[in-house]
C-alpha cells in the first residue's frame, strides 16, 4: 500500500518569487541532497547565437543542451566550436512545453513536448545516434488542454502521462526506437483515470509518475476547492492516499527516489512517499498474512484476475483490458445501459428495476464495470436529491454483480449507513474487497446498536450463523439484549463464582448466543472483512462501552462454540474462523480496555477471558517444562553411553 | 578363550574417540543430470563429486583453501564444473587431474551467485557491487562478455529462464528480471519486508527459480516462498513456511516439483498438482515437509528422483521421491552422508601411533596400554593413557590433501595442493623431535596419495598428473628411484595405493579406470585388473599370497592374485554365489582393508557402521542365513554353531567407525567419531518452541 509520510518544509526561504515560479528540483549524486533552482535567485546565461531552452546534466555523460528551436548538442562539442550553426528543428509558433531526459544503457534520450495551436507534438532525440523522431499526440474527441506532463521509461517504451484540464489522466506510449524515424507518427493516448482533479485549477495541476502503478496528482479535488496531493493506483484505479494543502500550491510537482517536492504556500515542502506494489491486497491496504493456507478465508482478497473474470473470460492481458475499459467508458455505451441511465433520473423505482434486470441480462462487455459504477452513482445521486427514493433492490442486485468496489462508489455505504440498511451493508461487506477500516467500524457500530424490531424486518443472509444458535427460542432472545443493556446483570454473584474456581457462567454462555441470529449474521460479516490493525484500532475506540461488552460476549460465545469440537471450527457454511475470533477479541480489548475494565457488566466476561488466557499460559509453560525434562533425560542417557575419549576393551568375535 | 575353538578369537580393542574431526558445513550442491553426479562445496572451500549412479560414492574431491570460499557452484556444458566465491574469483575445476584449471577475477567484488545458461554455454555471476556479469564459456576458458544493468545491492541469487532470454536476480528487498539481450531490467518485484507482523530492516532474496511459463519463485529471509508473474511483476501466491530464513530453492527439470530449505533445518517439497481431480488447471501446493537437518539448510538440489539437501549440520541428505523410484529397492531409502569416503587416519603399528589428518593440521597420538585381561565386553584398566605427541600446523591457506605415517613411525609426509612435506621423527627418552626433509625434488609438489612400504624404506607418491613416484628413504635423506608415467596418455589421477608387505608389488587405482599393478623390482607395469563398472573404494595386498583385495562402491569385494594375474578361486566362488543382500544394502563404502599376520585366510575390512573379518575357510552365507549375529552361542551345541557359522564375522559395536586396523595378532585399534560430539561443536541450531507463542 502507498502512504505519504510526514511532510517537512525546507528552510524558511521564500521560493518561487521569480516570474516563472520555482524552476526545478533535481537530484544530485547524494541521496539526501537535491538541487533547487529558483527563478528569483539564479543568473545563468549562455550567450550563443541561438537561445538555450535548458541544459541537462546526467551522471556519466556530458551535459546536453536543448535549444529553444529544438536542436540538441553536447555541451563539450558546443564549447569546442561556439560559432557553429544551430539548426531549427521545430516549426515556427511551436513552443517547447515540457522536456525530460532518460538514460538507456548509459545513452541519454531526450523527450520534449511542443505545442502549436493546441496541437501537441512529442520529439524523441537519441543523443548519441542523432536520430530524432516526431510524434503527434492525438487527443481524441475532447479538446482539453494539457496541464501537466510526466513520463517514465520501461525498456522500449516511454510512457507519457498527461493531466488535462478536464481533470483526467491519460497515458500515451512512445517508442524509444522508432520504426520509421523519417515520418511523423501518431500516438494515441488512453484514459487512465477520469475526473480526478477539478477542471478550474487556479494555479494548474500537476502529475508525477511514482512507479509503474502509481501516480501522484497535485491539484484541487473535483468537488472541493482545496488543493491536495493524492496518490492513485492506475492499475486498480484506486485512490491510495491524499493530503490537503490548504495554503495552495504552484501546480508544480517533482518526484525523486521516494520523495515528493512541491511548493506549499511560499515554501518548498518535502513529503517522503512509500509504496509497495505487486499485489491487489497491497494496493488496497489490506495486506495481511494468511497463516493457514487453503482455507476459504483466502477468497476474501479477491484477486484482480478473478474480479475481471466476472465479466469476461478472454485471455487478454490485464493491461489491454484496462485500456479498453477506459476507452469504452468514453464511447457511447450499449443502448440498454443508456436507457437505464436515463430512466434512473426520472422513473419510478419499479421501472428502474425492470430496466436494470434488462441491463443485467445483456452480455457483459468489458466496459460494463464502469457503467455499473455510473448506474450506482446515478441512483445515489437521485436518492440524495429525493429523500424518499431509495432503490434497495436495485442496489442489492448491483452489489451482487461483483463489479463494484468501495472505491468505485464510496457514497453507497455512506447512504446505507444513513438509512440503517443493514441488508445492503452486509452485502457490501461480503462483496467489496476494499472497504476502509472507518467504514467497517461504522457498520459494526450500526450492527451493535440497531434495535431488535428493525432487525426483524431486515432480510439478512444467515448462512454464516450455525443452525444450533439460530434455533434458539424467541423469548430468550427478547430477554438477552435487555439484560445487557439495562446493566443489571448479577455480576457480583458471578465474580464470587469465579473466585471459587468454577468457570463462571460457562454453561449458560456456551448454550445461548448473547445476540439475535440476525445480528450474529451481520457481526460475522464484519468478522470476515479484511482490515489493517493500525487503522482499525482508533475507530474501535469510538464504540460505546455496552456495545463493546455485547460484542465481546458474542465473540466469547463463538470461541466457546469453537471449543466444542476437535477441529476448533464453527458449524455452518461460511462461519468465522477461530483466528478471526481471537484477533477481534484482542483488537477490542486493545482499543477499549480501560473502558471495559470499569464496567461492572464486563467484569464477568473479563474474568473468564483472563482465566482462559492464564490457563493457556500455564498449559504452555507446563508443556515447555516437560520438553526440557525430556531433554535432560536424553542428556543423562547419552552420558551413560558415553565412555570417555579412550578405552581398551575386550572383544570376542564368534 | 582360544582361537582354535572355532571363533575369530579374542581381541584387545583400543577404542579411540579423541579424533576431534568436524566436517565443514555444506554450502552448495549442484546436480548434473547427464552424468548423474553431484558436486558439493563446503564452507572451507572443498569441492566433492559424488557419483549417484555408483551408490552415492564420493569419487573425487578438490581440497579447500582458507582464502577461497565457494558461494556458488554450477555445471556447464560438457560437464565442466565452475565455482565462485567471496574472493571474487570464478574457478574452473579439472575433473581429470583433480586440480584447479584456472581462477579468474570477475572484478565485481565478492561473488554471491552464479548460474550457467540453459544451453550451458554462458555463465552468469552476481556480485557484491550489484553487477550481474555475463561470461562466454570457450573451449578452454571463460571470457567476459558484458555487464547487465547495475543494481543497488548485492545479487544473492540468479536463475535463467529455460529459454535463455531472461534471467531473474534476487537482491535485497527486490527481485529484478533482466532481458539477456539488452541487459536491462524489465521488472522489479519488491518483496514485502513484513516478518510475522514485524517490519524487518531487510528482506534478503536467498534464492530464485525462473520457470518456463514466466513464473519466478523466490525464497527470502522473511520465511516466505513466493510465486511471481514476471510478465506483470505481480505477486501471485505467497507461502509462509518458516519463522526463519528460507535459504535455498531448487526445481525439477519437468518444473512440476520444487524443494526449499529453511534455516530451521526443514526441507519443504512443493508440487504442481491439479486443482481438482480431472481439471487442467494446476496449482503449486506445499506437499511434504522433511526434517532431516538440525541446522540451516543452505542448499538444495532436485535430481529426477530425489531431493538433495545440505547445510551447516554437515550432512548431505539424499531423499528419494518414492513416486519417482521405479523399483522399490534399497535405492529408495534415505541417504545421509556425513563422513568423507576416504581415510583421514594412518597408523604406525610398530610404535602404536595414530596420525590424524585435519583440514589445516596433523595430530600424532600414541596409544595407551594395559596389562590386565578380561572377558568379552570388559573395559580394562589403563596402565598408560593415550598421549598427544605432536600437533603440526600446515603452512599457508591450503587444506591438507593426504597424509601418512610410516609403519616404523620414523617418517611422516603430507601434501597440500602446491607443496609436499616429508618429516623425519626421532624419539629420545619419551621426547619426540621433528625434522623436515628439505630440498624435495621439484616434481614432488602435490600428491593425491602417499604410502610408505612395510619396511619404511620406500615412499610412494601418486601425483595429480597420473604419474607415480618411488623414493628411497635413507637415514635422514632420500633418493628418487623411479617414476611410472601415467598410462597410455591418460592424465587420470591415481587416488588409492597399496603396496605388498614384501615390497615387490604396488597397486594403484584411479577414479574410473581399473587397478594397475606395478612390479617394483622390475620397475614396470605388471598387469591391469579387468575393468569394473564401479569405482574402487579400498585396496590392499595380502602378505605371502600377494592377493590383491579390492572393494568397490557397489559393495562388491574381489580377490585377485597378482602372481597369477587372475581372480582367485575364492573370489570366483563368491561372485558365483553372490553377496548376502544385507551386505549389498550397506550405504557406506569400505574405506580400509587389512590382513591378519598369522591367519592368511582372514581379511579385515570396515565401513562407517561395521567392521568385518572374512574367514575364507568358512562357507559363504546365502540370503537365508543370518548375516549379522552378535549374540554369543552360549547354550547351543557345537553342531548348530557350525551349521550357522559363515565366512562373514561382523561387529557393529563401533560406530561411526572412521578407521580400524590390526596392530598385532591380538590387538585392534578402532577410531570412532560419535555424531553427538560433532553436533556439540556446531553452533546451536535455531530453537523452535514447540508450545505456546
Automatic annotation (TrEMBL), chain A:
Keywords: Activator, Nucleus, rRNA processing, Transcription, Transcription regulation. Residues 462-513 are annotated as: Disordered. Residues 338-654 form the Nucleolar protein 11 C-terminal domain. It holds the Pfam family Nol11_C. The keyword Oxidoreductase does not apply. The keyword Transmembrane does not apply. It comes from the Eukaryota. It is found in: Nucleus, Nucleolus. Residues 47-274 form the Nucleolar protein 11 N-terminal domain. This is Nucleolar protein 11 isoform X2. It comes from Erinaceus europaeus (Western European hedgehog). The lineage of its organism: Eukaryota, Metazoa, Chordata, Craniata, Vertebrata.
UniProtKB/TrEMBL annotation, chain B:
Coiled coil: none annotated. Gene3D superfamilies: YVTN repeat-like/Quinoprotein amine dehydrogenase. GO terms for cellular component: 90S preribosome; chromosome; small-subunit processome; t-UTP complex. It comes from the Eukaryota. Pfam families: WD40. GO terms for molecular function: RNA binding. GO terms for biological process: maturation of SSU-rRNA from tricistronic rRNA transcript (SSU-rRNA, 5.8S rRNA, LSU-rRNA). Interacts with HIVEP1 Interacts with NOL11. Part of the small subunit (SSU) processome, composed of more than 70 proteins and the RNA chaperone small nucleolar RNA (snoRNA) U3. May be a component of the proposed t-UTP subcomplex of the ribosomal small subunit (SSU) processome containing at least UTP4, WDR43, HEATR1, UTP15, WDR75. Ribosome biogenesis factor. Involved in nucleolar processing of pre-18S ribosomal RNA. Part of the small subunit (SSU) processome, first precursor of the small eukaryotic ribosomal subunit. During the assembly of the SSU processome in the nucleolus, many ribosome biogenesis factors, an RNA chaperone and ribosomal proteins associate with the nascent pre-rRNA and work in concert to generate RNA folding, modifications, rearrangements and cleavage as well as targeted d Involved in SSU pre-rRNA processing at sites A', A0, 1 and 2b. This is U3 small nucleolar RNA-associated protein 4 homolog. It comes from Erinaceus europaeus. The gene is UTP4.
Amino acid at each position: 500500500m502507498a502512504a505519504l509520510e510526514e511532510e517537512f518544509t525546507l528552510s524558511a526561504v521564500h521560493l518561487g518569487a521569480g516570474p516563472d515560479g520555482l524552476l526545478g528540483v533535481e537530484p544530485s549524486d547524494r541521496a539526501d541532497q537535491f538541487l533547487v533552482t529558483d527563478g528569483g535567485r539564479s543568473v545563468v546565461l549562455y550567450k550563443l547565437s541561438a537561445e538555450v531552452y535548458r541544459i541537462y546534466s546526467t551522471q556519466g555523460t556530458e551535459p546536453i543542451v536543448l535549444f529553444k528551436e529544438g536542436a540538441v548538442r553536447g555541451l563539450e562539442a558546443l564549447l569546442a566550436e561556439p560559432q557553429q550553426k544551430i539548426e531549427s528543428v521545430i516549426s515556427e509558433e511551436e513552443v517547447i512545453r515540457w522536456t525530460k531526459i532518460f538514460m538507456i544503457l548509459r545513452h541519454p534520450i531526450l523527450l520534449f513536448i511542443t505545442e502549436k495551436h493546441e496541437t501537441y507534438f512529442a520529439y524523441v532525440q537519441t543523443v548519441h545516434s542523432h536520430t530524432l523522431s516526431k510524434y503527434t499526440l492525438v487527443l481524441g474527441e475532447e479538446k482539453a488542454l494539457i496541464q501537466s506532463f510526466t513520463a517514465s521509461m520501461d525498456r522500449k517504451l516511454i510512457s507519457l502521462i498527461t493531466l488535462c484540464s478536464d481533470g483526467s489522466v491519460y497515458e500515451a506510449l512512445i517508442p524509444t526506437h522508432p520504426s520509421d524515424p523519417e515520418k511523423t507518427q501518431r500516438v494515441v493516448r488512453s484514459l487512465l483515470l477520469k475526473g480526478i482533479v477539478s477542471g478550474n485549477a487556479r494555479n494548474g495541476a500537476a502529475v508525477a509518475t511514482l512507479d509503474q502503478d502509481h501516480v501522484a496528482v497535485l491539484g484541487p479535488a473535483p468537488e472541493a476547492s482545496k488543493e491536495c496531493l493524492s496518490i492513485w493506483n492506475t492499475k486498480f484505479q484506486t485512490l491510495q492516499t491524499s493530503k490537503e494543502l490548504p495554503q495552495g500550491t504552484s501546480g508544480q510537482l517533482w518526484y525523486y527516489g521516494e520523495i515528493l517536492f512541491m511548493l506549499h504556500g511560499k515554501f518548498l515542502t518535502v513529503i517522503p512517499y512509500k509504496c509497495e506494489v505487486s499485489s491487489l491486497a497491497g494496493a488496497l491496504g489490506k495486506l495481511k498474512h494468511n497463516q493457514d493456507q487453503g482455507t476459504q478465508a483466502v477468497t476474501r482478497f479477491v484477486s484482480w484476475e478473478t474480479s475481471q473474470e466476472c465479466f469476461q473470460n478472454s485471455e487478454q492481458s490485464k493491461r489491454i483490458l484496462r485500456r479498453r475499459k477506459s476507452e469504452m467508458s468514453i464511447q457511447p455505451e450499449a443502448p440498454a445501459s443508456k436507457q437505464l441511465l436515463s430512466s434512473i433520473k426520472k422513473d419510478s423505482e419499479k421501472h428502474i428495476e425492470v430496466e436494470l434486470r434488462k441491463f443485467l441480462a445483456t452480455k457483459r462487455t468489458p466496459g460494463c464495470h464502469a457503467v455499473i459504477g455510473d448506474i450506482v452513482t446515478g441512483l445515489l445521486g437521485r436518492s440524495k436529491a429525493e429523500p424518499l427514493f431509495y432503490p434497495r433492490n436495485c442496489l442489492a442486485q448491483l452489489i451482487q454483480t461483483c463489479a463494484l468496489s468501495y472505491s468505485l462508489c464510496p457514497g453507497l455505504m455512506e447512504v446505507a449507513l444513513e438509512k440503517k440498511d443493514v441488508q445492503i451493508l452486509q452485502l457490501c461487506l461480503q462483496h467489496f474487497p476494499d472497504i476502509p477500516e472507518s467504514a467497517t467500524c461504522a457498520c459494526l457500530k450500526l450492527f451493535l446498536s440497531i434495535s431488535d424490531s428493525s432487525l426483524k424486518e431486515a432480510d439478512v443472509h444467515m448462512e454464516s450463523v450455525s443452525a444450533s444458535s439460530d434455533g434458539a427460542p424467541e423469548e430468550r432472545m427478547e430477554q438477552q439484549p435487555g439484560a445487557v443493556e439495562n446493566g443489571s446483570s448479577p455480576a457480583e454473584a458471578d465474580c464470587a463464582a469465579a473466585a471459587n474456581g468454577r468457570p463462571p457462567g460457562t454453561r449458560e454462555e456456551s448454550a445461548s448466543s448473547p445476540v439475535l441470529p440476525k445480528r450474529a449474521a451481520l457481526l460475522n460479516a464484519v468478522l470476515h472483512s479484511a482490515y489493517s490493525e493500525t487503522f482499525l484500532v482508533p475507530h474501535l475506540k469510538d464504540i460505546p462501552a455496552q456495545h463493546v461488552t455485547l460484542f465481546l460476549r458474542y465473540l466469547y460465545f463463538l470461541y466457546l462454540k469453537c471449543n466444542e469440537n476437535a477441529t476448533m471450527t464453527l458449524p455452518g457454511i461460511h462461519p468465522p474462523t477461530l483466528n478471526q475470533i481471537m484477533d477481534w477479541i484482542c483488537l477490542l480489548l486493545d482499543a477499549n480496555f480501560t473502558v471495559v475494565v470499569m464496567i461492572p457488566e464486563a467484569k464477568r466476561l473479563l474474568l473468564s477471558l483472563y482465566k482462559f488466557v492464564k490457563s493457556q499460559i500455564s498449559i504452555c509453560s507446563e508443556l515447555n517444562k516437560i520438553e526440557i525434562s525430556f531433554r535432560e533425560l536424553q542428556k543423562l542417557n547419552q552420558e551413560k553411553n558415553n565412555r570417555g575419549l579412550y578405552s581398551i576393551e575386550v572383544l570376542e568375535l564368534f | 578363550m582360544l582361537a582354535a575353538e572355532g571363533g575369530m578369537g579374542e581381541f584387545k580393542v583400543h577404542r579411540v574417540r579423541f579424533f576431534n574431526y568436524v566436517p565443514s558445513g555444506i554450502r552448495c550442491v549442484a546436480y548434473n543430470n547427464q552424468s548423474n553426479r553431484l558436486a558439493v562445496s563446503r564452507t572451507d572451500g572443498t569441492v566433492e563429486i559424488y557419483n549417484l549412479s555408483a551408490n552415492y560414492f564420493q569419487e573425487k574431491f578438490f581440497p579447500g583453501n582458507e582464502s577461497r570460499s565457494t558461494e556458488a557452484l554450477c555445471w556447464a556444458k560438457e560437464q565442466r564444473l565452475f565455482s565462485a566465491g567471496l574472493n571474487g574469483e570464478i574457478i574452473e575445476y579439472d575433473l581429470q587431474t583433480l586440480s584447479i584449471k584456472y581462477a579468474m577475477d570477475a572484478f565485481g567484488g565478492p561473488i554471491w551467485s552464479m548460474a550457467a545458461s540453459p544451453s550451458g554455454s554462458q555463465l552468469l555471476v552476481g556480485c557484491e557491487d550489484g553487477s550481474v556479469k555475463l561470461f562466454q564459456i570457450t573451449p578452454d576458458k571463460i571470457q567476459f562478455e558484458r555487464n547487465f544493468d547495475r543494481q543497488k545491492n548485492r545479487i544473492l541469487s540468479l536463475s535463467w529462464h529455460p529459454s535463455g532470454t531472461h534471467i531473474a536476480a534476487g537482491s535485497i528487498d527486490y527481485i529484478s528480471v533482466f532481458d539477456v539481450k539488452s541487459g536491462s531490467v524489465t521488472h522489479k518485484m519488491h518483496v514485502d519486508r513484513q516478518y510475522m507482523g514485524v517490519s524487518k530492516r531487510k528482506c534478503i532474496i536467498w534464492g530464485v527459480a525462473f520457470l518456463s511459463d514466466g513464473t519466478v519463485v523466490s525464497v527470502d529471509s522473511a520465511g516466505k516462498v513466493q510465486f511471481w508473474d514476471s510478465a506483470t511483476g505481480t505477486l501471485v501466491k505467497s507461502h509462509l513456511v518458516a519463522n526463519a530464513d528460507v535459504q535455498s530453492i531448487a526445481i525439477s527439470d519437468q518444473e512440476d516439483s520444487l524443494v526449499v530449505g529453511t534455516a530451521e533445518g526443514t526441507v519443504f517439497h512443493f508440487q504442481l498438482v491439479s486443482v481438482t481431480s480431472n481439471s487442467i488447471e494446476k496449482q503449486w501446493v506445499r506437499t511434504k515437509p522433511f526434517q532431516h537437518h538440525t541446522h540451516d539448510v543452505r542448499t538444495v538440489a532436485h535430481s529426477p528422483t530425489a531431493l538433495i539437501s545440505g547445510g551447516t549440520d554437515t550432512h548431505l541428505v539424499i531423499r528419494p521421491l518414492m513416486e519417482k523410484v521405479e523399483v522399490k529397492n534399497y535405492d529408495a531409502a534415505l541417504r545421509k552422508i556425513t563422513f568423507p569416503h576416504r581415510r583421514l587416519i594412518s597408523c604406525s603399528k610398530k610404535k602404536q601411533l595414530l596420525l590424524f589428518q585435519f583440514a589445516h593440521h596433523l595430530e600424532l597420538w600414541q596409544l595407551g596400554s594395559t596389562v590386565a585381561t578380561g572377558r568379552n565386553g570388559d573395559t580394562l584398566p589403563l596402565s598408560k593413557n593415550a598421549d598427544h605427541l605432536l600437533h603440526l600446523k600446515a603452512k599457508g591457506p591450503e587444506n591438507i590433501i593426504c597424509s601418512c605415517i610410516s609403519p616404523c613411525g620414523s617418517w611422516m609426509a603430507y601434501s597440500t595442493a602446491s607443496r609436499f612435506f616429508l618429516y623425519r621423527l626421532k624419539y629420545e627418552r619419551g621426547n619426540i623431535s621433528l625434522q623436515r626433509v628439505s630440498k624435495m625434488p621439484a616434481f614432488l609438489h602435490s600428491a593425491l596419495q602417499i604410502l610408505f612400504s612395510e619396511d619404511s624404506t620406500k615412499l610412494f607418491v601418486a601425483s595429480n598428473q597420473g604419474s607415480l613416484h618411488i623414493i628411497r628413504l635413507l637415514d635422514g635423506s632420500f633418493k628418487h628411484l623411479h617414476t611410472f608415467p601415467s598410462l597410455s596418455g591418460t592424465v587420470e589421477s591415481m587416488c588409492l595405493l597399496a603396496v605388498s608387505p614384501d615390497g615387490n608389488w604396488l597397486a594403484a587405482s584411479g577414479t574410473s579406470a581399473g587397478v594397475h599393478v606395478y612390479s617394483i623390482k622390475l620397475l614396470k607395469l605388471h598387469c591391469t585388473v579387468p575393468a569394473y563398472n564401479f569405482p574402487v573404494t579400498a585396496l590392499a595386498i595380502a602378505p605371502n599370497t600377494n592377493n590383491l583385495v579390492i572393494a568397490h562402491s557397489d559393495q562388491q569385494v574381489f580377490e585377485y592374485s597378482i602372481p597369477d594375474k587372475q581372480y582367485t578361486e575364492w573370489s570366483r566362488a563368491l561372485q558365483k554365489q553372490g553377496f548376502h543382500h544385507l551386505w549389498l544394502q550397506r550405504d557406506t563404502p569400505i574405506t580400509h582393508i587389512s590382513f591378519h599376520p598369522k591367519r592368511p585366510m582372514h581379511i579385515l575390512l570396515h565401513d562407517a557402521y561395521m567392521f568385518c573379518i572374512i574367514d575364507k575357510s568358512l562357507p559363504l552365507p546365502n540370503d537365508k542365513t543370518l548375516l549379522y549375529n552378535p549374540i554369543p552361542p552360549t547354550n547351543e551345541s557345537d553342531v548348530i554353531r557350525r551349521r550357522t557359522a559363515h565366512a562373514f564375522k561382523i561387529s557393529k559395536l563401533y560406530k561411526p567407525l572412521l578407521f580400524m586396523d590390526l596392530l598385532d595378532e591380538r590387538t585392534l585399534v578402532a577410531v570412532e567419531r560419535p555424531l553427538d560430539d560433532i553436533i556439540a561443536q556446531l553452533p546451536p541450531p535455531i530453537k523452535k518452541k514447540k508450545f505456546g507463542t
